């Protein structure tokens, strides 16, 4: 099956030197189709921000042993999923889809967050269902299970369907920022890059703080730049000041 949208034929590269040719495997072909659909269908804009996660990292370190006693590895991704789930509840347009044919916006009352997973087969995005109803420990357990089964070819197709928002965490690999592509028919995706310790001026002196770069790509048809800035800043505040989650 050819990748839809590819029109121009390639030249014969062997005219200029030796080449190898390999067929696209299923996951790579599906990823190519999905990203092409998202890129062609959605007018992308990317908003950038940074969060001071020094407190979050201290929380993880403090509670790691307790989580391990019940067989769970506490991770930043699990905390991010919980904060994003609350942000999506408060900013419902980021948990929506655009119905262009009928000129409608579909606002979803459920919150299912996809977690991009780097696997030997390529990029897979298993979905954490009802993320807003799970504790951080439950989320950590669910994410670990989905990621393991995705890497071991045991993930089911329906476990990668129905996502309303996606998180792509490349912090374990590196990089200072990137612009993720929105996974159609979703309208937003959050990119996480590698955190770094920086000197931050706090109360008349510099302190070493752990800073996390975040990037939010969104569908400009229904999300304006000011709303995207507020949404991403709310996520940063949730990481920096967790009690923000319980203000209302």
Briefly, what is this?
By secondary structure, the protein is α+β, with helices and mostly antiparallel strands.
Notable characteristics:
5 helices, two-stranded antiparallel sheet, 248 residues, 7-stranded mixed beta sheet, alpha+beta
List the helices and strands and how they pair.
Blueprint: H1 26-41, E1 44-52, H2 54-69, H3 76-90, E2 96-99, E3 104-107, E4 113-115, E5 117-119, E6 122-124, E7 127-128, H4 136-151, E8 165-169, E9 188-192, E10 196-202, E11 205-219, H5 225-240
Parallel strand pairs: 4-8, 8-9
Antiparallel strand pairs: 1-11, 2-3, 4-7, 5-6, 9-11, 10-11
Helix pairs in contact: 3-4, 3-5
Query: Which segments are poorly predicted (pLDDT under 50) over 5 or more consecutive residues?
Result: none
Task: Tell me the β content.
Answer: 15-25%
Average pLDDT level: 90
Count of distinct strands: 11
Q: What profile does the largest beta sheet have?
A: 7 strands, mixed
Task: Determine Rg (CA atoms, Å).
Answer: 20 Å
Intertermini distance: 50 Å
Helix content: 25-40%
Order of helices and strands: HEHHEEEEEEHEEEEH
Label the overall shape: globular
Provide the structure class. Answer: alpha+beta
Number of helices: 5
